[in-house]
Write a structure and sequence with these properties.
300 residues, single chain, alpha+beta, 9 strands, 5-stranded antiparallel beta sheet
């Protein structure tokens, strides 16, 4: 039943890919998935970049995966991981309280605004609360406060380089980093670079066990992606993700998904930009289709 529903959903976007049999050559199966992503991209009117990894078998599905895309708020996954790394080093504490004036508030700061000095509460927030706000509701001021405490965008980029990520870079704070100008290398990543870094952070040894568990818990609790990747995975799958939105029709979603049957998780990095002709809901729908395709690809 789920397979039929997937095909119907893909058909609504004009996708014609069908499941490959085990006897078909690998190149043919690969081109099938590539064609499906090409057709999805064409329907979106923008540029789509996708990297998917079956962590159980090590297989990958890549589409424009080496091209640069605006990070937007997907950088917040990396930022929270960096803060946890600093905690492990003894340079930060999750229970440390951060006080801040109302003058630092930027757009979309629903959780930090009431806690600013002079606000309804005014007592500030702990580092853990700032991380939660950054990942769960994508609070922009929370992210800026964390960045400012830990060396700014350049320090985060340097840490990513130490992990072997040579592509991802953060240059600006919220909300300037969301300009998404074509050809601008600032505040960008490639889908494949994000995928590899997520693998190290969420499943590898870049963080300790407790920090990794905390990062995954924040991602599973995300409230901004219900209609993006999460909407496309089958019922019963457990998903943790981080979305991002920017100018010029930019919408992204990256994350991890555990199949209900207990298989190893999928890692997905899905980036869309230049899709100005779509509504925000339709842009989310593109990522939902990527997730549907990913689950079909896993079952190939």
């Amino acid at each position: 039943m789920y397979r039929r529903n997937c095909l119907m959903a893909l058909g609504a976007w004009g996708l014609t890919a069908s499941a490959a049999t085990p006897m078909e050559p690998q190149a043919q199966r690969t081109s099938e998935w590539t064609r499906a992503l090409q057709e999805l991209e064409a329907r979106s009117g923008g540029r789509l970049g996708v990297a998917i990894r079956d962590t159980g078998r090590g297989a990958q599905l890549l589409y424009r995966a080496d091209e640069l895309f605006p990070l937007c708020s997907t950088f917040k996954l990396l930022l929270a991981a960096y803060v946890l790394h600093r905690v492990e080093q003894g340079a930060e504490g999750l229970e440390r309280r951060v006080l801040y004036p109302a003058s630092v508030l930027v757009a979309h700061s629903p959780r930090t605004a009431p806690h600013a000095e002079g606000g309804a509460r005014g007592e500030g927030m702990t580092v853990a609360q700032l991380c939660d706000a950054t990942l769960v509701i994508s609070d922009n001021t929370a992210a800026n406060l964390l960045l400012g405490r830990h060396g700014g965008p350049q320090a985060l980029t340097a840490w990513l380089r130490s992990l072997g990520d040579t592509q991802t870079r953060l240059d600006r704070y919220e909300t300037e980093l969301n300009s998404a100008l074509p050809g601008d290398p600032r505040d960008t990543t490639t889908p494949q670079a994000m995928l590899a870094t997520m693998d190290k952070l969420l499943l590898g040894s870049a963080l300790g066990t407790a920090s990794r568990a905390q990062l995954l818990a924040w991602l599973r609790g995300n409230l901004t992606g219900d209609h993006a990747l999460r909407a496309g995975f089958p019922n019963g799958w457990v998903v943790g993700d981080k979305t991002g939105s920017g100018d010029l029709g930019t919408r992204n979603d990256v994350g991890i998904a555990w199949p209900a049957e207990g298989r190893a998780p999928l890692l997905v990095a899905s980036y869309l930009t230049g899709a100005q002709s779509l509504t925000p809901a339709q842009r989310d729908g593109v990522h939902a289709e990527v997730a549907r395709l990913a689950s079909r690809w896993l079952a190939r």
